[in-house]
Structures are given as structure tokens and as C-alpha cells.
Amino acid sequence: MEKTDWYGELSSLMIYTEHEIPAVGRLLELFRMQDSAQKQHAYAAFFRELAEAGFADDLKGYLSSRILYSDNLFAREASCNAGVPQVLMHAAAHDLDILEHLCTLTPAQAGLPEGIPFPAVGHGELPLGDTGWGGKAAVLADFHRKNGCGIFARNKAFLWRDGELVPVTHTNEITLSDLKTYEEPRRRVLENTQAFMQGLPANNVLLYGDRGTGKSSTVHAILNRYAPEGLRMIEMPKSAIAEFPKVVEKLRGTALKFIIFIDDLSFSTNDSTYAQLKAALEGGLAARRDNMLIYATSNLRHLVREKFSDREGDELHRRDTMQEQLSLSDRFGLMVTFINPGRQQYYDILDGIAADRGLAVSPEELHAGAERWALSRGGRSPRTARQYIDHLEARLKLGLGMD
Questions:
Q1: Phi/psi of residue 123, each to 5°?
Q2: Whole-prediction pTM value?
């Protein structure tokens, strides 16, 4: 195919343009050039784009990745869970045919000298696969319907920072099977999340109790369990609760499910932020949408730290204040308690983690060492159990034995 044909093909892209796929822009520039040196300069920019994206020797992998994770009109329409207009389906199919064809480009067709490093065809990312892209517009629409588009298709967890969603590229990959005991509280949270994912009535959740008992880990594990089904999580600091309406607006127009996660939540008695959280939970003008729930963890049942000095003053005023504070935790429809384990539960946790890791140590030695570890760290908890196992595993692998 002559260079003018390639230029015409790429210029006719309607959805996956150079704005969505930067390498396309680099090639358009290359095909416009007449001078050999200018061509090589444009090709160098094309090659750098692929290499920096991690696809220096895989053009098809680069293109399919950009297609799957771009944020364009077709992807947004598909992710809304509504039927994509046929004109957009045809436009997507047209572009997919061209981009698959682009993978057959050779250095000679690009007007480049022999011997120049040129990316191989490589392999397309699923669900596009290696061939037949033009016939997979419906498959691509289904992908976006389940996974969203743009950053929501590429990532499952986000931080809310300075009014923007910041993707978390490396998340805690803990699973529910990694968490030992506490079956009943986890079952309640899991069933609530399952109802939420199936579009059934579900509650905001408050996980409260002793530190180190696995409250946050439970939430992370539930995200990992349901992320393939379209669950996403946004961790929001308490200081940003007033910006909850902005979060609601950011999530407009997507059918994905979102858990707004607030970790280690507590308030002082003179902190008015809890009134903003009440509005976010229930009753505010910018109410959360049906595809959003709030999950929070706290060491406090009523979320507000109270001192004896706070009880001074007018009796009527004190009762009103206390009722307002208590009503905050009541806004969470599901409250789940995690308390420090007794001795046997602590041992069960240790035994389960040690078995998962295949540690060759007797239960008696394991329990005795873990008791000493817990004593030096203020008591038994799932966190101290896991910390001790980490310590023990390292010692055993270094050949140091039990300490």
C-alpha cells in the first residue's frame, strides 16, 4: 500500500483518532513528510511512543491496549449500559478494521531505510484478540459495559485528591481466603456487597472495632473479589467529605458500581464535618446515586470522640448534641463489629496463615513465639499475627530458625 493510501486510511478514523492513540498522530506526521531525515525524525517519535508505553516490539498490543482503555464517545455510550447507536457501532467497526490493518505496515511502505528497528505485529489484548477486530465492535461495547472506559477500565481503585480521581496502579491484592476467622462479620459485609452488585437494595456499612482486626483488609478483599464484575473503589479522606457532591458528579454516566471508602473515621465534638457526612449518607441535596455505597472503618462505635469536659453546659443543649452525634452512626444501615481475638482465635489465625505459607514449624513453637510477639506489641490481633508470621518466615528462609 502506498504512503498516500496509509495517510488516507488513518485520516478517516472517526473514533480512535490521534487524540486517543498518539502513535497514529506520529504516523500521520511521518506520511506527510517528503524529506528522508524528517521521516526518520517522525518515526523516532512513533517508536518512542510505543516504547514508553511498554510495547516497543508489539504494535498490535499497543493499539489494542489503547482501544480498550481509551475514553471516547463510543466507550462512554457503551459504559452507560444503554444501547449504543448503530452509527457509533459502524464507526467503531470502521476504525477497528483500519487499526488492525495498520499492524501490517512495513518499513518500506513507511518510506524508511532498511535495517531500522521496527515493531513486530505482536498480539492483541483480549477481548479484541489477534484478528477480526472490525467484527468485534459489539464485543468491545460489552467490555466497556462491564469495565467502564478510560481510567475506570484500566484501574479498580482510586484516591480522591485535590478534587480529582487519582488511579492507584498497585493495590493490596489480599483475598478473602487470606483473612482468617471473623467469618460472621465478613459474611454480612460480603452479602451486602453481593446485593449491591446485583442491583438489589444495599446499605452503607460501618466496620468498627479494635485496631488491627482486619476492617480495612476486609474492604480491600471485597474490592478484589468483585472488581472483575465492575466494582470500583474510591478512598476518600475525612477532610474531603465536603467534596462528596463533586465525587457524585465525577461518576455521572457510568453503570459501574462504586464503594466510597473512608478509613479510620472519627470526629471530635467540635468538628462539624460529621454533619456533611450525614448529608452524604442520607438526606443531602447531592445524594449518592444507586451505583454508590459508603463503607467506613472506625475504632469508635459512635464515631465522635467525647471527653467528660464536653458534657458541661446546658442539659438540653447537651442532649441535642449527643442525639446529633449518635444519629451519624445510625445513618449506616449495616454496622459490623470486629473485636480483638481470644487466645484460641488468635491461634487459629496463626495456624491458617502459617499453613497458607507452608511454614515447617510445630503449632507449639508457633503459638509460643506469637504470644511473646503479641506481649511486646500490646496484645493479640490479626495484625500482630500476620506481622509475626512475616517475621518468622523471613527468619526460617534465612536459616536463622525460631527466635
A1: -130, 135
A2: 0.86
Indicate the burial class of 398 (C-beta count within 10 angstroms; 0-12, 13-18, 19 or more).
Answer: exposed
HSE-CB at 218 with a 13 A cutoff on CA atoms is 31
pLDDT in tens, 19-76: 999 999 999 999 998 898 999 999 999 999 999 999 999 999 999 999 999 999 999 9
What are the grid coordinates assigned to 150, written together? 478510560
Round the CA-based radius of gyration of the chain to a whole number and report it.
Answer: 27
CA 345 – CA 382 distance, rounded (Å): 9
How far is 146 from 178, CA to CA, in rounded Å?
26
